[in-house]
Amino acid sequence: MITILGLVSLASRADHIIGGEMYYTWLNATGTGNNYQVTLKLFVRCDAAIGQIDPDVNIAIYDGAGNYYTTLREITRNNLEQYTATDIDPCIVNPPYVCYQIAYYTTQVTLPFNPRGYYATFQRCCRRTRLTNIFSDDNNVGGSYFTKIPGTANGFDRNSGPRFSAEKGTIVCANNKFRYDYAATDPEGDSLVYSFSTAYTGGDRDNPKPNVSAAPPYTPVSYNAPFSASQPLGDKATIDPKTGVISGIAPRAGLYIVTVSVNEYRNGVFIGEHKKEFQFTVENCVRQVVAALPDKFADCDGFVINFINNSTPNKEYVWDFGDGNTFTTNNLASFPHRYADTGTYRVKLTVDPSSSCGDSAFSTVRVYPQLLPSFDFNGLCTTKPTQFLNTSTNDVGTFDYFKWDFGVTAVTSDTSNNQSPTWQYTTPGSYTVKFFMSTTKGCEKEITKTIEIYDKPPFTATGDTLQCIKDELQLHAESTMAGSFSWAPLYNIRNENTADPFVSPKKDTAYNVTFTDLTGCVNTKRVRIDVRDTVLVKTSADSLICTGDPVDLAAEADGNYAFTWVNLDTRQIISRANTVTVTPVGTGAYYVQVDLGSCNSRDSIFFRTVDPPKAFAGLDTTICFGEKVLLQASGGAYYSWSPTETLTSPRKATTTAWPKDTTTYMVTVTDTLGCPKPVTAQRTIAVVPPVPAFAGNDTIIIKGQPFQLHASGGVQYRWSPADGLSSTTIPDPVTGYNRDITYRVKVYTREGCMGEDDIHVRFMTGPEIYIPNAFTPNGDGVNDVFRPMPVGFTRMEYFRIYNRWGEEIYSSVEYLKGWDGKKKGSPAAADTYVWIVGGTNVAGQMVEKRGTVTLIR
């Protein structure tokens, strides 16, 4: 949206000033001059504090020639008005707050009669940074606000100038249609003509409010492309010269400086020019419904027009094509409509017609088939003008306007309105030429072509080359441009005025070829001929190679000749490059030949093959963890094993290995028989991990009752001693022994690896829970843990310990796990503690016991 004189942020150096206007009113005349009232209006953001608004200003007076006359000092601010946008469009979803103030400074001055009149001027710095349409990022761009009072020469010295009167804030959505009244009034009712004009700079950071404003003329601000003084809001916003109404399509979001000039006329005679500057703030707002389509369809390409709808989506769209036909749809997609006859049609698109926020848009359609744009050009050399030829055709009406843009970005004058103009390019390069045309029927089209401008006509020619003294050589030149060729010198040359002459020099010679295009532009190239009566080639020396290895054949010649490699055993050509890779089988012989026309030379090379070593590292083996294995390699003279960390002699053919887990050992074997190629072999030693033999946890059982052992970790088991055991060769024998005993079990894997473990079985009377009455957690390994010893119990339900204040300090349900005498990680005090333990015995009965224990430190 555009919020007129909108607000963003408060800055220093009076960046709260967002525009200005100065005008004069004639009061009366005296014997020596005229009395005028001069009024300065400064437009100020609403968020400016009262202390930021200048309490007084100085207005400098210069005569019409720019000579200083006087300064009207300390003109007090006599009024401060505030304006807001009150007519809020209910169809805008997010209307912004629009507000600005006007500070008035009014004074009177008597000016002596002067034929050239006077300037009254005020300057103030600085404008806000990051303005969209003018450069202001250095925060050093101020403004000049002035009025020109007519002199006696034109008889209008008793005139009161126009002043802008439309001060109402308004809201406009960005990239949407808008309308803003920029009208002025004139006290005498003179005619007023409006136009956009430039804003001016004034003041700077070092002197933001000059004591005496500078003399005219003033420097225009620098506009950022594509904006300009005549298009401050872009090319889609215009001002009505009769009414001062600005309308069109709003630009993108940003801050814009807009200056409007109004020229005052009385009975057709120009009196003077008056200016007003506004700052527009452009933001985004959203309308509920927007109707949008191209403002015209004027390419005159046929009777079928493809209509484009850029409106708000998901609405009802009613089209009136201006030929008596209508079309209603809910689809935004473009669609064709066929007109029955030629003519100019006014198309109306209505969006969401049943809504109070519905919108409509119009477009002009011109149906006058057929306008076919095209152009040609001649002369692309910087030394000659380029001629552009309009070759467009049009079936209805005649051409009434042409506009050429020759694509020279460094200048703005590279345009023409002639039908077939010329343009002199001064710099070679690519240029994009645009050609716009229109007809008396309103048809419009533009086409674009890219042309290549050269300082010399482009062409190619044979490069520098070698030639056998016995031969004749055909040279060649060509160009994409039309033109002629000539060759020199006239030494042993035929057809010298063609693109393809024949030459047969007997010594080194340089021929020059000259190309001349049809406009007379000339370019020349030189072709150097190096004449050879002999040619030389050399390849590598004969050598031994390993059987099966590829080998690179390389040759060097004294020129850029044609190479041919031949296998002498098969007489077959194997390559036409200067290098080739071959893999000889057994012995091999090759020759290379170079050719330059009728001149040639050759050289040969012989290879003898030697077999590489036949490395062997032995067969893969499996060992038990902790065992050693002998590695033995063969097939060569030298050996190197890896990895070396678990080997005794990694540089010998035979070495001992003690891998801790499965390892693949690699041996590299080399020989002394003529093939230095190292060959590798490998042997994998699979290591069976340590046998996880487990006889079970030490346990306490009820005396007189059988107890089943259970071992794990392998596939075979051997128990000892055999006392009380039902079997010594199964994993889970039963013991009926009634005395404390330790059993040992040997566990074997499928590979025959063995591991051992034992279990201590204690026999006690039960079912019963045995528990001590004291313990000493001093870390000596004796009586360090206080725990219950359940005999004949199938489950521990709870084991808890409390201090004398009833605070629970330990709890567990794990078998034979006890208290280590700590409370929350720190040693508990030496004291008497209460315990309680409960569990289920083999009879399924719940048993609970309580008591005390003494912790001794």
From TrEMBL:
InterPro entries: Ig-like_fold (IPR013783), PKD/Chitinase_dom (IPR022409), PKD_dom (IPR000601), PKD_dom_sf (IPR035986), T9SS_type_B (IPR026341). Residues 309-367, 402-453 form the PKD domain. This is Gliding motility-associated C-terminal domain-containing protein.
